[in-house]
Amino acid sequence: KVRDGVTKWILRQVLHRRVPSELVDRPKAGFGAPIERWLRGPLRDWAEGLLSARSLIDGGFRAPGVIRRHWREHLERRRNWEYRLWAVLMLQAWHQSEASAVGPKIG
Questions:
Q1: Cβ neighbours of residue 93 under 8 Å, at least 6 residues apart?
Q2: Is 31 exposed, middle or buried (0-12, 13-18, 19+ CB in 10 A)?
Q3: What is the DSSP string of the chain?
Q4: For position 102, what pLDDT does the model report?
Q5: How far apart are CA 15 and CA 13, in angstroms?
Q6: Which of 26, 29, 33, 74 has minimal Cβ neighbours within 10 Å of its Cβ?
């Protein structure tokens, strides 16, 4: 598994037979999901539902105006709020799934 501080040594030896060394020995690299584009495209309707003023209030946001403004600015391409909006969307989606698992609110 590890030899002379090199992890995945056996796998690297096999790869060196078929793949150029610069691909095998390079550092790890992450990749980003195109959230900015998704929110303006295929996920727009889903996001709009979760970011509606009523949904935000139901989710516990006391003043949804800032989030709504960020959403408008994002859609109009004035600002890229993808990460902040994504965090709110994940919280809202979780809240919605928890609320539906428990049942309807009473009172």
A1: 50
A2: exposed
A3: -EETTEETHHHHHHHHHHS-HHHHSSPP------HHHHHHTTTHHHHHHHTSHHHHHHTT-S-THHHHHHHHHHHTTSS--HHHHHHHHHHHHHHHHHHHHH-----
A4: 66
A5: 5
A6: 29
Contact by Cβ (8 Å): 77, 92: no
- The 10s digit of each residue's pLDDT in 21-55 is 888 888 888 888 999 999 999 999 999 999 999 99
Q: DSSP secondary-structure letter at 29? A: -
Position 83 scores a pLDDT of 95
